[in-house]
Specification:
This protein is an all-alpha fold. It is 89% helix and 0% strand.
Length: 192
């Protein structure tokens, strides 16, 4: 039983000391890695923002072109009295505008998909940035913790426990004096 208690105490002390040492060693390497990762995120986020802004500009231009083509198709349809699709295809200007409008609409769908992708990418980077910032705060907290007091108290406790574990379980009492013997006798006689 005493041996088991001694092993557990030693194991706990070892784990605490190992954890403290690992945290100190961990901070040096991981802190730099996390800072580099934040730099990468910052650069990539700027690239994503630039691409999203370019996509928004092109989207606006294509949207304006689609509206202009639609207006031109409507004007030409009214001017040529094209009531059906087959009649509209017989008018070269309408057929050409429809083909261009179809291509513009395809580009708009592609830009919408690309913009959605860029929004998702930006959101994902923000999540990673938040996780890295949290990790950096945890590392900083571990650095800021002064564990010397805890380790000193732990060392004192371990020393005390080891002394107690290595001490004899029983030790002989000094001989009782006459007064203590009389009290013991009286207790026996009275049935205590």
């Amino acid at each position: 039983m005493i041996t088991l208690l001694l092993r557990r105490t030693t194991g706990i002390v070892g784990m605490i000391l190992l954890s403290a040492c690992m945290c100190l060693a961990f901070d040096g390497d991981k802190g730099g890695e996390l800072n580099r990762a934040l730099d990468e995120i910052k650069i990539t986020a700027r690239l994503i923002d630039a691409r999203a802004a370019a996509a928004a500009t092109i989207h606006g231009q294509l949207r304006a072109q689609a509206e202009a083509l639609s207006a031109e198709i409507q004007q030409e349809r009214l001017r040529r009295s094209a009531a059906t699709f087959q009649q509209a295809l017989q008018v070269d200007r309408i057929r050409y505008d429809l083909l261009v409008l179809q291509q513009v609409m395809g580009y708009l769908v592609q830009l919408d998909d690309r913009t959605a992708y860029l929004r998702t990418a930006a959101h994902t980077l923000n999540v990673y940035r938040d996780q890295i910032r949290d990790d950096r705060l945890m590392l900083q907290a571990l650095n800021d913790v002064d564990s010397s007091g805890l380790l000193r108290q732990l060392g004192e406790a371990v020393d005390e426990y080891r002394r107690q574990c290595s001490a004899a379980l029983l030790k002989a009492q000094t001989a009782y004096g006459p007064r203590e013997l009389e009290i013991l006798w009286n207790g026996l006689v009275k049935g205590h």
